[in-house]
């Protein structure tokens, strides 16, 4: 059992329980990919597996899970709403490297500077954020250009011990996901054409930023080569532009 498998198992079980889940197509060659890294006695297999679903109000629910031994474990789990809802994105980046853990958990807002949007989607989850702050201290600086894409309830922490991940981080992940699904339950479709255009632009801004700055790009390129990596990023992880282009 790898460090983040229980997170993924919990997420899938919870989604099945609360949503009408449908499969989401994973392009051929991305369901599973492995590579041998290191030399001699230090050689290890790195396995990347992909999981994806859709639901009535959610365009894509997807996970990329990288398992490379004790010093490399990654789970990137993101939920993208349908474009006719003003729901935030759900984002969990759970990363274990030789130097420790990097944990980022948030409901990433479409419109961070809109007070009404913050009142609707950030204020209700601030108590959850505050509950975990004492156990999971702030992880320090992150890029200025990334700030517009995170909410005031952004849980960003660098715990040293596995135990903190298995207890406090896992509990926070569960609470954030349940709170997000409560928002999904309550969400009503948007019909105003200007608001719909703003939502689409907010999605594209977020996706372009994430695809361009994906911190896993270097890792995937090292393991699987640049061609596979770029196609994985643009054709699966952040595929909205491709999907919109296919429709138009």
Automatic annotation (TrEMBL):
The keyword Oxidoreductase applies. The keyword Oxidoreductase applies. GO terms for biological process: phytochromobilin biosynthetic process. It holds the Pfam family Fe_bilin_red. Its EC number is 1.3.7.3. It comes from the Bacteria. It is an enzyme of class 1 (oxidoreductase). InterPro entries: Ferredoxin-dep_bilin_Rdtase, Phycoerythrobilin_Fdx_Rdtase. Keywords: Oxidoreductase. Signal peptide: none annotated. GO terms for molecular function: cobalt ion binding; phycoerythrobilin:ferredoxin oxidoreductase activity. Coiled coil: none annotated. It catalyses: (3Z)-phycoerythrobilin + oxidized 2[4Fe-4S]-[ferredoxin] = 15,16-dihydrobiliverdin + reduced 2[4Fe-4S]-[ferredoxin] + 2 H(+). PANTHER family: PHYTOCHROMOBILIN:FERREDOXIN OXIDOREDUCTASE, CHLOROPLASTIC (PTHR34557). NCBIfam families: PRK13250.1 (NF009723). Catalyzes the two-electron reduction of the C2 and C3(1) diene system of 15,16-dihydrobiliverdin. Belongs to the HY2 family. This is Phycoerythrobilin:ferredoxin oxidoreductase. It comes from Amazonocrinis nigriterrae CENA67. The lineage of its organism: Bacteria, Bacillati, Cyanobacteriota, Cyanophyceae, Nostocales.
